[in-house]
Design brief:
By secondary structure, the chain is an alpha/beta fold. The chain is 24% helix and 29% strand.
Length: 319
């Protein structure tokens, strides 16, 4: 076991509540135990889970304060615990720190199990990797639940969002034909660039008509990454025997028509290797909408309430 008295900067809460409760702290760097690694965080992803945890809606372990937020990151390993064989000091990695007993990644350092860490895929820089862990694992978990493969006709709601734009690229690599429903004209343009077979604005009044024209015999699968009444009206286009999937946090939860299976799938770190293989097939993009310094984590969370594409991240260390 490694112990250290070295201090670090971290964004943490001393009690649950609004964004004003999230403040800069100076805390000890967490200790590294067996099977764990210490990561010097360069980029930390921002997600809805941060807001839910800050407000006390998402409590996954014993509550103690100060509580460091942050569910994902990219950085460099600076120490490894006993029994760690897959990683070494100096490795550039990205990691899931969600539901982490030793604190989140909105900090200069984070300690996580080596099981929730992966090498940064070739072709991705540190900035893109910092926004990828939860988005990538959530996307792939749901695509696997949908049995996505060659010829799958997929309707994808939320295609220009953090999980959605990653899911689109992965689905194309898995052989699917994707009808992408994005947010706004800029969202439509983004998903077209990322390979959507057809793209529409989810706020338009012709979504159903265009979806029926795209898949006159019905869709094999639907991936729902946003919640709205418009979503539900299109799920009747999933054929008998088809599948609808969605992750935690989608409200209202979609309902499956008779004869259609409904599945819920969330980020699974066991899929990191498969995610890296799929990313390595061709050029891959993690679209970064905005970056904020660590100290502006509260502003970054507030920015999620506005229209944006892809991911919002924090620059913690590095340039």
């Amino acid at each position: 076991m490694q112990t250290t008295s070295q201090p670090m900067k971290a964004m943490a809460v001393d009690k649950f509540g609004g964004s004003d409760k999230l403040t800069l702290h100076t805390l000890p760097v967490p200790t590294v135990d067996t099977g764990e690694v210490l990561i010097r965080v360069e980029v930390a992803g921002v997600g809805v889970w941060d807001v839910m945890e800050r407000e006390g809606e998402l409590v996954y372990n014993e509550v103690h304060f100060p509580r460091v937020l942050g569910g994902e990151c990219a950085g460099t390993i600076t120490a490894v615990g006993d029994g760690v064989e897959r990683f070494a000091v100096g490795d550039r990695v990205y990691a899931q720190s969600f539901m982490n007993d030793k604190g989140g990644s909105d900090a200069e350092y984070v300690v996580v199990s080596e099981k929730t860490v992966a090498p940064i895929p070739d072709g991705l820089d540190m900035l893109m990797a910092g926004g990828l862990p939860i988005a990538g694992l959530t996307a792939l978990s749901n695509l696997k639940a949908l049995l996505t493969g060659d010829g799958t006709k997929l309707i994808l709601w939320g295609a220009s969002g953090g999980v959605g734009h990653v899911a689109l690229q992965l689905a194309k690599r898995m052989g699917a034909s994707v009808f992408a429903i994005a947010s706004g004209a800029d969202g439509v343009e983004l998903v077209k660039q990322l390979g959507a077979d057809e793209a529409v604005d989810g706020h338009g009044d012709d979504v159903g008509q265009r979806a029926r024209a795209f898949a006159p015999d019905g869709f094999d699968a639907a991936l729902v990454l946003v919640g709205s009444d418009n979503v539900q009206s299109t799920l009747s286009l999933v054929r008998q025997g088809g599948i609808i999937a969605f992750p935690n946090g989608i409200m209202p939860e979609p309902k499956a028509p008779d004869g259609v299976e409904l599945k819920k799938a969330n980020a699974d770190p066991m899929l990191f290797d498969q995610l890296n293989r799929l990313i390595g097939i061709d050029q891959f993009q993690v679209h970064i909408a905005q970056t904020f310094p660590l100290e502006a984590a509260a502003q970054a969370q507030s920015a999620m309430k506005q229209h944006y594409l892809g991911k919002i991240v924090l620059r913690v260390n590095g340039e």
